[in-house]
Amino acid sequence: MSDRIAVMDKGKTLQIGAPVQIYERPNCRFVADFIGTSNLLEGFFNGSPKIKVGGFHLMVEDLPKGLSPGAPVTVSVRPEDIIVLPGTEKEDNRLHGTVTFIRDVGSSVEIYLNCDGVQIISQSTPKGRPEVKQGDKATAVLPADACVVLKS
Q1: CB atoms within 10 A of CB 51
Q2: How confident is residue 152, by pLDDT bands cut at 50, 70 and 90?
Q3: How would DSSP label each residue in 47-64?
Q4: What angle do CA 131, 136, 137 make, to 5 degrees?
Q5: What is the CATH number of the domain that holds 145?
Q6: Domain range holding 4?
Q7: What does residue 62 show for φ and ψ, rounded to 5 degrees?
Q8: Which region holds residue 29: left if phi is over 0, alpha if psi is between -120 and 50, else beta?
Protein backbone atom coordinates (compact mmCIF):
# COMPACT_ATOMS: atom_id res chain seq x y z
CA MET A 1 0.00 0.00 0.00
CA SER A 2 1.13 3.49 -0.70
CA ASP A 3 0.05 6.95 0.42
CA ARG A 4 1.28 8.47 -2.86
CA ILE A 5 1.25 7.03 -6.36
CA ALA A 6 2.26 8.06 -9.85
CA VAL A 7 0.31 7.13 -12.96
CA MET A 8 2.47 6.83 -16.05
CA ASP A 9 1.81 6.17 -19.74
CA LYS A 10 4.60 5.33 -22.18
CA GLY A 11 7.24 6.59 -19.74
CA LYS A 12 5.50 9.93 -19.11
CA THR A 13 4.20 10.79 -15.65
CA LEU A 14 0.59 11.94 -15.98
CA GLN A 15 -0.45 12.44 -12.34
CA ILE A 16 1.08 12.10 -8.89
CA GLY A 17 -0.95 12.17 -5.69
CA ALA A 18 -2.78 10.30 -2.96
CA PRO A 19 -4.77 7.31 -4.27
CA VAL A 20 -8.13 8.85 -3.34
CA GLN A 21 -7.18 12.16 -5.02
CA ILE A 22 -6.23 10.41 -8.25
CA TYR A 23 -9.40 8.31 -8.15
CA GLU A 24 -11.78 11.20 -7.42
CA ARG A 25 -10.04 13.93 -9.45
CA PRO A 26 -8.15 12.42 -12.40
CA ASN A 27 -6.39 15.03 -14.51
CA CYS A 28 -6.79 13.31 -17.90
CA ARG A 29 -8.81 10.64 -19.69
CA PHE A 30 -6.07 8.02 -19.41
CA VAL A 31 -5.91 8.34 -15.60
CA ALA A 32 -9.73 8.31 -15.27
CA ASP A 33 -9.92 5.12 -17.33
CA PHE A 34 -6.86 3.46 -15.78
CA ILE A 35 -7.85 3.90 -12.12
CA GLY A 36 -11.20 2.17 -11.54
CA THR A 37 -14.33 2.34 -13.64
CA SER A 38 -15.57 5.66 -14.96
CA ASN A 39 -18.28 6.98 -17.21
CA LEU A 40 -16.36 8.98 -19.83
CA LEU A 41 -18.79 11.32 -21.57
CA GLU A 42 -17.74 13.26 -24.65
CA GLY A 43 -19.06 16.80 -24.88
CA PHE A 44 -18.40 20.48 -25.45
CA PHE A 45 -17.82 23.42 -23.12
CA ASN A 46 -20.71 25.92 -23.42
CA GLY A 47 -18.83 28.97 -22.11
CA SER A 48 -20.55 28.86 -18.73
CA PRO A 49 -20.17 26.23 -16.05
CA LYS A 50 -22.15 23.90 -18.35
CA ILE A 51 -21.02 21.05 -20.56
CA LYS A 52 -23.18 19.79 -23.42
CA VAL A 53 -23.19 15.98 -23.65
CA GLY A 54 -25.45 14.74 -26.42
CA GLY A 55 -28.78 16.51 -25.91
CA PHE A 56 -28.13 17.08 -22.20
CA HIS A 57 -26.47 19.81 -20.13
CA LEU A 58 -24.25 19.16 -17.13
CA MET A 59 -23.50 21.81 -14.54
CA VAL A 60 -19.97 21.33 -13.21
CA GLU A 61 -18.04 22.86 -10.34
CA ASP A 62 -14.48 22.90 -11.68
CA LEU A 63 -13.14 23.51 -15.15
CA PRO A 64 -9.63 23.06 -16.54
CA LYS A 65 -7.74 26.32 -17.05
CA GLY A 66 -7.69 27.82 -20.53
CA LEU A 67 -10.91 26.21 -21.73
CA SER A 68 -12.61 28.23 -24.46
CA PRO A 69 -16.28 28.05 -25.49
CA GLY A 70 -16.94 25.20 -27.92
CA ALA A 71 -13.86 23.25 -26.81
CA PRO A 72 -14.27 19.47 -26.80
CA VAL A 73 -14.08 17.93 -23.33
CA THR A 74 -14.55 14.59 -21.61
CA VAL A 75 -16.55 14.43 -18.38
CA SER A 76 -15.56 11.66 -15.97
CA VAL A 77 -18.20 10.48 -13.49
CA ARG A 78 -17.70 7.45 -11.26
CA PRO A 79 -20.59 4.93 -11.31
CA GLU A 80 -21.06 5.08 -7.52
CA ASP A 81 -21.71 8.85 -7.76
CA ILE A 82 -24.67 8.45 -10.14
CA ILE A 83 -28.18 8.13 -8.76
CA VAL A 84 -30.83 6.35 -10.85
CA LEU A 85 -34.47 7.35 -10.45
CA PRO A 86 -37.54 5.78 -12.07
CA GLY A 87 -39.16 7.89 -14.78
CA THR A 88 -37.76 10.82 -16.72
CA GLU A 89 -37.05 14.32 -15.50
CA LYS A 90 -35.65 17.00 -17.81
CA GLU A 91 -33.29 19.22 -15.83
CA ASP A 92 -29.59 19.98 -15.87
CA ASN A 93 -27.48 17.05 -14.67
CA ARG A 94 -30.30 14.61 -15.31
CA LEU A 95 -29.98 12.32 -18.30
CA HIS A 96 -33.12 10.39 -19.14
CA GLY A 97 -33.14 7.13 -21.00
CA THR A 98 -33.88 3.43 -20.88
CA VAL A 99 -32.47 0.76 -18.58
CA THR A 100 -30.67 -1.66 -20.89
CA PHE A 101 -29.08 -4.06 -18.40
CA ILE A 102 -28.90 -4.72 -14.66
CA ARG A 103 -26.06 -6.72 -13.15
CA ASP A 104 -26.33 -7.85 -9.54
CA VAL A 105 -22.87 -8.87 -8.34
CA GLY A 106 -23.74 -9.46 -4.68
CA SER A 107 -22.14 -6.52 -2.91
CA SER A 108 -23.20 -4.06 -5.61
CA VAL A 109 -25.76 -3.55 -8.35
CA GLU A 110 -24.79 -2.03 -11.71
CA ILE A 111 -27.47 -0.38 -13.82
CA TYR A 112 -26.79 0.44 -17.46
CA LEU A 113 -28.81 3.16 -19.16
CA ASN A 114 -28.95 4.33 -22.76
CA CYS A 115 -29.61 8.06 -22.63
CA ASP A 116 -30.15 9.02 -26.29
CA GLY A 117 -26.97 7.22 -27.34
CA VAL A 118 -24.96 8.14 -24.22
CA GLN A 119 -24.25 5.03 -22.12
CA ILE A 120 -24.32 5.54 -18.35
CA ILE A 121 -23.31 2.97 -15.74
CA SER A 122 -24.52 3.46 -12.18
CA GLN A 123 -23.47 1.41 -9.17
CA SER A 124 -25.25 1.10 -5.83
CA THR A 125 -25.49 -1.23 -2.89
CA PRO A 126 -28.25 -3.86 -2.89
CA LYS A 127 -30.08 -1.90 -0.15
CA GLY A 128 -29.86 1.30 -2.23
CA ARG A 129 -30.96 -0.42 -5.44
CA PRO A 130 -33.30 1.78 -7.49
CA GLU A 131 -36.77 0.45 -8.26
CA VAL A 132 -36.17 -0.07 -11.98
CA LYS A 133 -35.98 -3.07 -14.28
CA GLN A 134 -34.65 -3.68 -17.78
CA GLY A 135 -36.70 -1.73 -20.35
CA ASP A 136 -37.90 0.92 -17.86
CA LYS A 137 -37.57 4.63 -18.49
CA ALA A 138 -35.21 6.11 -15.91
CA THR A 139 -33.19 9.21 -15.07
CA ALA A 140 -29.48 9.26 -14.23
CA VAL A 141 -28.63 12.09 -11.84
CA LEU A 142 -25.00 13.24 -12.13
CA PRO A 143 -24.16 15.59 -9.23
CA ALA A 144 -22.17 18.66 -10.32
CA ASP A 145 -19.43 17.97 -7.77
CA ALA A 146 -18.94 14.44 -9.19
CA CYS A 147 -18.47 15.65 -12.81
CA VAL A 148 -14.74 15.99 -13.48
CA VAL A 149 -14.06 17.88 -16.71
CA LEU A 150 -11.02 16.78 -18.70
CA LYS A 151 -9.62 18.47 -21.79
CA SER A 152 -10.06 16.21 -24.82
Answers
A1: 25
A2: low
A3: SSSEEEETTEEEE-S---
A4: 100
A5: 2.40.50.140
A6: 1-36
A7: -125, 140
A8: alpha
